[in-house]
Amino acid sequence: MTRSLIFLFVLQIFSADCFGQENTNENPPNIVLILIDDSGLMDFGSFGGEAQTPNIDSLAKCGTMFTNMHASPVCAPSRAMLLTGSDNHLAGVANLPEMLPKEYQELKGYAGVLNDSVQTIATRLKELNYNTYVTGKWHLGHDENTLPTKKGFDRSFILGASGADNYEASGYLPMKSTAQWYADGKPTDLPEHFYSSESYVDEMIRFHREETDPKQPFFSYIAFQAIHAPVQAPKEFVEKYQAIYSEGWDVLREKRFTKAKQMGIIPEDAEMNPMLEEMNPWASISEKDKKAYITDMAVMAGMLDAMDYHVGRYIAYLKEIGEAENTIFIITSDNGPDGGDYEKLYGWAKRNGFHRDFDKNGGKRYYGTIGPEFASAIAAPFSYFKYYAGEGGLRVPLIISGLKASNHQIDNSFCFITDIAPTIYDIVGLSTSENKGYHPISGKSMLPHIENNSVPIYDSKDGVGLEAAASSAYFLGDHKIVKNNTPLGDKQWKMYNLKIDPAETTNITSQNPMLFQTLLSKYELFAKNVGVQPMPEGYNAQKEVGRKSFRAMLNPFKK
Amino acid sequence: MYYTFLSYLLILSLAGSQEQSNDENFELHVVSYEEFEAFVNATGYVTDAEKYGWSFVQQDVYKFEVVEGANWRKPNGEHTPSSKYLPVTQVSYNDAIAYCEWSNTKVPNYEEYWELIKSDKRAIVTNNNKPISTVNEANVLGNVWEITATTVGDSTRLAGGSLFCSVNTCHGTSKDREQFIDKQTGNIHIGFAVIRNSHH
Question: Is the CB of residue A106 less than 8 Å away from at least one CB of chain B?
Fold first, then answer.
């Protein structure tokens, strides 16, 4: 606790440099929303990560760092909730479509693209004549009805798919939607010398330069590909991290655990989960493979560093045009680190023009993936990672910067990704409760809490339900019930006290069965209200598909 | 499981071969193992999977393995298809184009595929409860993915769907879904159909 107080004190020394704090501008503020892909809670420098992110850190110094922010465990549902403030099922993005039984195709909410029953932040801000821009990964549909031009954005330069190479229009998996970018609603080629983080900022700056009505406030949403697989970054950003991960994932886990305590993210006496059984110990890895892992992690850190560098260029541009003072910056991520096992794709990747040349330090066409062990380590001290509803899959960084009253830099209050939209509406003076003709906004405005720390974001009666990727959770007060899907989870409900056990080491269901029942009933009510479709008993997405095919195969014989 | 898979594909192929003639001039014909073998025997052609020495073998909708020695002769790396009438699999776009050059046929482009499927007489399972019916625009499940002449960059756009798909998995089985694979890669659930005269 003492350490975190010192940390706060140090930060306040810098607050004199903060823009926005002395802002006397009466115009509605500009909003810059920056989304990192697959970044865990502690990846930014200011949150304890190894990568140097000085520009993001400077925003953190002038705002609030939320360390108890939760997203969904997968990308598209999180993006839908971020942009609408409504539950992902209501927004039409219940899940990734690949994960559903056949019968669910027609069900409301399961189309996998943003529907017309919700409004995006961009659409709402148009009510106040904001100029609205988006660059980066969209992944909420890419037909004429679902591209950003139909979702409130004046200008857009976006990737339709879930991910892609960072240097050219090329996919990253053998069977996948092609990597297609769209500019202002139409398919487009990539600009020359494309690098995702750099070009997304370049295009954003271009939108500002081409604006015919620059007096209006703006909303800009930059959804970086960083640090989604394949991790790729220019050499100059990667080199400095070559040695930083050489002690391996077991040591890194301990470091992040210690750091989390120092920063007050978890209590001093909190425990950390043991590494999942399925993970290999670092000591069992060959020297050659260790080099590969260490390089991939260096590239991951370099990719964050590069992203931060380009965020810095954007901030510098906003200063140059005199808009930085009146801009609120919000920075977050869509889910925890990606523990996908891409190793078996290396052969395929190589014959498709990717390389694994470690001496090149991750430049163009590098096929870098951090693997499940390092993903677990950077999710530490929390449990699981992307695709799972353990805190490691859900907890993401959040910085809200540029508000005058923002003066308590590290904040452990629970918040949820649906809170961002209503917080923005509150900041600019739009209603968060009336939402005529559209699904209600389920998130809470965080503004009253930011202005007065003693006002909670969620009080002890306000719970939050979550369902995506066949994993579920319900949060109420200090408690959480969670059901993690296979293969790493066991699909059994468990209950934890996140305040004393944020790493979810001790299941307290049997110690407090009444409370467990309360949370479970609340989850069930939530699920009913948003239209979560119960999976059949014993449902496993992978097995279900196999069994269904098997039954289909038998049918011709029956006939 | 593997044999059941093969039997299923066989039934589909046989059902397809028992079709009656219709008024359409052209139809899709799924190239069989036997037909592909004739091509290889005549030309000595070596497929991409044979060149690389391995291929992907799909296990279920998400899971695939890299299997040494998997190629059109042994789609799962171990077994020869139980019938020569089965659709050839473990072929790439490059392989399909080579076959077409030799046989003086062509694979449809993506748009043509969805036109031709309307008169496709292959039998198919529509869902768990209904018996097999003919392939139609909305339902080509249970077959193998089919390589098309529509390419984007280094990839071919796959049409239809595969045995491992359900209606809304694999991003397949309806025209607006998108599924691409690079031109040199095959899998146990990817084959190809050529356009031929329906009175063939």
Answer: no
A460 burial type by CB count under 10 A (0-12 exposed, 13-18 middle, 19+ buried): exposed
What Cα–Cα distance (Å) separates residue A325 from each residue in A205, A321, A344, A401, A457?
17, 10, 49, 11, 26
Q: Do A352 and B11 touch (CB under 8 A)?
A: no
Residue A488 inside a domain? The answer is: no
How far B34 CA lies from chain A's nearest CA (Å)? 22
Q: Is A556 on the interface with B (CB under 8 A)?
A: yes
Question: Residue B90 carries which side chain, given as an amino acid letter?
Answer: Q
Interface contact flag, B8 A177, Cβ < 8 Å: no
Contacts of B64 in chain A (CB under 8 A): 174
Q: Helix (H) and strand (E) counts for chain B?
A: 5, 10
Whichever domain contains A146, its CATH number is 3.40.720.10
pLDDT digits (tens, 9 = 90+) for B112-160: 998 888 776 665 544 443 434 444 443 454 578 899 999 988 899 998 8
Domain of residue A390: give its range.
2-22+30-462
Asked if residue A528 belongs to a domain, the reply is: no
Beta bridge mates, A410: A65
Q: Is the pTM of this model over 0.90?
A: no
Give CATH for domain B2-14+24-197.
3.90.1580.10
Beta bridge partners of B55: B67
pLDDT in tens, A415-436: 999 999 999 999 999 998 777 8
| Inside any domain, residue A138 | yes
Is residue B186 a contact partner of residue B179, using CB atoms and an 8 Å limit? no
Q: What share of chain B is helix, strand, coil (3-state, %, to 5)?
A: 25, 25, 50
A555 part of contact set with chain B, CB < 8 Å:
yes
Contact B127 A347 (CB under 8 A): no
Phi, psi of A270 (to 5 degrees): -70, 155
Question: For residue B155, what is the nearest residue in chain A, using CA coordinates?
Answer: A178
Q: Total domain count for chain A?
A: 1
Strands B64-68 and B54-58: antiparallel
Q: Output the CA torsion sign for A243, A247, A250, A255.
A: negative
Pairing of strands A155-159, A131-137: parallel
Domain assignment present for A467:
no
Inter-chain residue contact B152 with A178, CB threshold 8 Å:
yes
Chain A touched by B151 (CB under 8 Å): no
What is this model's ipTM?
Answer: 0.79
